[in-house]
Amino acid sequence: MTFASVLVLNGPNLNLLGTREPAIYGSETLADVAQRCAQAGERLGLAIDFKQSNAEDRLIDWLHDARTNVDGIVINPAAYTHTSVALADALTAIAKPVIEVHISNAHKREAFRHHSFVSPIAEAVIVGCGTQGYVLALERMATLLKAGDRS
Length: 151
Ligand code: DQA
Hints:
Strand order of the largest sheet: 2-1-3-4-5
Number of helices: 6
Strand content: 15-25%
Order of helices and strands: EHHEHEHHEEH
Structural class: alpha/beta
Bound molecules: 1,3,4-trihydroxy-5-OXO-cyclohexanecarboxylic acid
Largest sheet: 5 strands, parallel
Number of strands: 5
Helix content: 25-40%
Radius of gyration: 14 Å
């Protein structure tokens, strides 16, 4: 039984998880993360739509669809976190809770990763918890959606 639906959106290069800089991002693949999210969704009563794209316009189109299709958004915008006003604008246009996830602790890394265009829009930001961050984000999202706080 699900009571709400959540879009879990992944940005560029996250399709390479498991083989890309494993010392930073770990050995789980994106398919493993999708499975973790599906399991968390079952436990929490959330229908999960898990997507990844390397293309900014594709991510934005999915966010436009999310304005009517889903109750909340968990997003790892990857490098677009630090560069994309367009993605931030699309997230702002959605009157649904947004939780930002980063697998690594971006604040421990290069200075250009310290700024996020997404954080000011997000209800919560989870960084440096590895792929577990996605599960933590879904748990928080379930709490927010149960409380009826869909702003
Ligand atoms: C990331 C951190 C970003 O700085 C980087 O560009 C990524 C992944 C993370 O999950 O730690 O691609 O979002």
